Amino acid sequence: MSATDTGGRVSRFGSAVAEGWTRERFGLLGAVALVLIALAPPFQVYLFTDFLVVALFALGFNLLYGYTGLLSFGHGLFYAGGAYGIAIVLRDLGPVIADIVGAGISPLVTFVLGGVVGLVLVVLVAVPVGWLSVRLEEIYFALITLAFGMLGYSLIIQDPAGLTNGTDGVIVLLGTVDLGGFSLRIGGRRIYYAISAVTVVAATYGVWRVVNSPFGTVCKAIRESPDRAAALGIDVGHHRWMTFIVSAAVVGIAGVLRAGLASVASPGLTHWSTSAIAVIATVIGGATYFYGPIVGAFIFLYIRWAISRFPALEAYWELFFGALLIAVVLFFKQGAVGGLLLLRDRLFGDGDGDGGGGGGGGALNGGQASTAADDGAESGDDNARADRGDNS
Questions:
Q1: Which GO terms describe its molecular function (predicted)?
Q2: Coil, strand, or helix at residue 182?
């Protein structure tokens, strides 16, 4: 890319920022906020890093649920796959890599290589699991993904070939990069936050490009009506399979980050209760909006943290989330994002009362799962959409 092209893009970005509350301005404010959070107290940096990881987990899950209409209760399998991939590489190949590249930079090389291995491992697992799972629909799809997840949980507990260390899990030590007198501890909270923020932003942008591509449009068509999509010549099974693999890969990246953040890869990551975190975050935030899982993860983690500040309430935190879920399901079927857009419409007189739905809403919901193109597939699937809280 030439300097002229770069200068032109920067100029266009600056003009877009100056024009009002555009997507570019929100992006710029978000980037500034990410930088400022790095200056917060260490525990808040850790908590926000945790939020970023859970948000990416939920975002990957929602690619399958919110955009293709398949509810999985087994995505913890891929979350754990990414975590165990990097953990095993750090444990078993760290000394070998240090002999090859030198001790100073080997922690960084091992970390990157471990992340790649974790991602490849997740894709290798997702290919057969997805191929078998997408042959089923609705509750049967949910059950088979739950079964695969719990099968993975049992295998990890059994410690095949001494790889997973059974119930104790695998300790993750990220090490310190030392080059020319410059030391950088990868596991330091602010350094790891920076790594996680860059990775999550890049992955989020990748998912956004996917859902706004022809591939994403086909996903939404399948979600609205698989039969009509098939009638248009779409290979529904193959497209669901590809979406399953992409979704698993995104979740696997979150799993890689989770291992470094928690300093351990444990069997609990595979358990169905871990998969349920992505489901809860997505439902709270709004499955029909691109940013819904991110908002839901923020609400989930920070309410959980606020409850933990009061020991008398800590023992009953499930009660609070149960009440929150009931309120969302009964009164905010489009989740927190849908509720906020509805509130914005009422305050500023949008007048259509649709909460920003129907493909409108400007920059705020530019990545909404429902688009005007979806309007062609409507009435026959209204009941199914209402059942999963999708009123888009």
A1: branched-chain amino acid transmembrane transporter activity
A2: strand
